[in-house]
């Protein structure tokens, strides 16, 4: 099962399937889960990880909202979708920078996922007009 299949079955998609946006939506949802998991792991760390937790949770919420907006095909709200993709890029960059400062493997994995999500959102942004 894939989100691409689901989007492709939408009555208003037809030949107007946007592969880059579908990929960004999938990666944003996955990134949301990675960030939530990282924040939870940070809670178990012995050191003060409050800033990392906050950054991860903010990024998780933004990524989830981005994924939701990116899969909607009924009607259009291009201006808001573009703004949301830009916000997701920024949130992922901030989270990657924060997690990248920690040696914990969960933080390093989260940073990598955030960078990948930001890259996919950048690619999708170029296709949304």
UniProtKB/TrEMBL annotation:
User: Per its UniProt entry, which superkingdom is the organism in?
Assistant: Bacteria
InterPro entries found in the cross-reference section? Csp_YhjQ, YHJQ-like
The protein's name in its UniProt record? Four-helix bundle copper-binding protein
Provenance organism: Fulvimarina uroteuthidis
